[in-house]
Design brief:
Blueprint lengths: L4 H38 L7 E4 L2 E4 L11 H4 L2 E3 L1 H7 L2 E4 L1 E3 L2 E12 L4 E4 L5 E6 L6 E2 L4 E7 L5 E5 L4 E6 L6 E2 L6 E4 L3 E8 L1 H4 L7 E6 L5 E5 L2 E2 L10 E8 L10 E9 L4 E5 L4 E3 L2 E7 L5 E6 L1 E5 L3 E6 L6 E5 L1 H15 L6
Antiparallel strand pairs: 1-2, 2-3, 3-24, 4-27, 5-21, 6-15, 6-20, 7-14, 8-10, 8-13, 9-12, 10-11, 12-14, 15-19, 16-17, 16-20, 18-19, 21-26, 22-23, 23-24, 25-26
């Protein structure tokens, strides 16, 4: 008699079940091993972070867990020999030099207010005569106008107290003028004032007696003179103080209202610590110079305070000492590599 179909199915499952269970157990064991290995791959020692960006090797110092994003710790960089050559880095030594510098001050030509006359009537009244026109050159004592007094009904003359040119006229015949009315302004233009604006960064360097070269903006007209006055206070509107000189203007070419630039040349009295101008960089909002670190081709920024500078050298007041080595050329390229390396290493961190 043939076995029934139900009987054959029961036998099949009885024989196959142990093998299926064994296979499932081995599979679960493999998954556990895989999960354990994945955890080990995803959790390296945080003190062993080493990011490579092209030709640069950026090494993050111990304790940099990216919670605070300490830029000073991240600023150290190690370059390959090829990267050093490509950036054109050169190393120099901090030494002492006597250096000069120049300060350029914006300014404007103004009237010599010691030789400026505002003409007003002695008594209020009616203007009977106007004797001079705007722009006329007059001599001291010349008649300007005649006014009839309202009180006495007698006429009196108004004459010029100085020689000069009429630069403003505010009077016509027949009009009533009060005692506070300015009828004319007379300017002696034989000399003019040079008013330069001195801002806080240069305030301690500009003083009375310094020689200054005045250049009319947009022209080649120049004159050398000496500062006769430096204001002791700042103008509250411009946040600058006035440095003033007086220059001759016999030919009338230094017209009030002309924009000028004043250049003052300065020099240090004795040798001071200096670095090359190209070494100075602005990094993370601070003035820095890059110096070699303890690693081969390694560099890091040092915060410095600047003093007097010119187009070649910068005085170092603090941050470096005589004999220290520093990156004299290629500092900008070095800063760019650090910035790009930091950005690449912290993608997704909001840098």
């Amino acid at each position: 008699m043939k076995p029934s179909k139900f009987f054959l199915i029961v036998v099949f499952y009885v024989l196959l079940l142990p093998a299926v269970c064994l296979a499932m157990k081995e599979t679960d064991h493999d998954h556990e091993n895989c999960d354990h290995g994945l955890q080990e791959m995803q959790a390296p020692d945080k003190h062993d972070v080493h990011s490579k960006h092209g030709d640069t090797d950026v090494k993050h110092k111990e304790g940099d867990d990216h919670d605070g994003h300490d830029h000073e710790q991240e600023a150290a960089i190690v370059l390959t020999d090829r990267a050093v050559e490509f950036a054109g880095l050169t190393i120099d030594v901090v030494n002492k030099k006597s250096i000069g510098r120049s300060i350029e001050l914006p300014g404007e030509i103004g009237f010599n207010e010691d030789r400026l006359a505002h003409i007003t009537p002695r008594y209020p009244g009616i203007v009977k005569k106007v004797a001079k026109k705007l722009g006329e050159t007059i001599q001291k004592g010349e008649l300007l106008a005649v006014v009839e007094s309202n009180e006495s009904l007698t006429a009196y003359a108004i004459s010029s107290p100085i020689s000069g040119k009429i630069v403003e006229k505010n009077v016509t015949p027949g009009e009533f003028v009060g005692e506070d009315a300015t009828l004319f302004i007379i300017a002696d233009l034989a000399t003019v004032w040079v008013n330069c604006d001195v801002y806080a960064k240069d305030a301690d360097l500009v003083e009375k007696g310094l020689e200054i070269l005045i250049t009319a903006v947009g022209t080649d007209r120049q004159v050398k003179t000496t500062l006769l006055y430096v204001a002791p206070v700042y103008n509250t509107s411009t946040r600058s103080m006035i440095a003033r000189a007086v220059i001759p203007n016999t030919d009338g070419k230094w017209r009030p209202g002309t924009f000028i630039t004043g250049k003052i040349s300065l020099s240090t009295e004795k040798p001071v610590l200096v670095v090359s101008q190209n070494a100075i960089q602005l990094f993370d909002g601070e003035t820095v110079v890059f110096v070699p670190s303890e690693h081969k081709n390694g560099f890091e920024p040092v915060v410095v305070q600047k003093g007097v500078e010119n187009n070649r050298h910068v005085e170092i007041l603090s941050g470096l000492a005589e004999g220290d080595t520093y990156v004299a050329t290629g500092a900008f390229e070095l800063k760019a590599k650090i910035v790009t390396s930091t950005l690449g290493g912290h993608a997704g961190h909001g840098h």
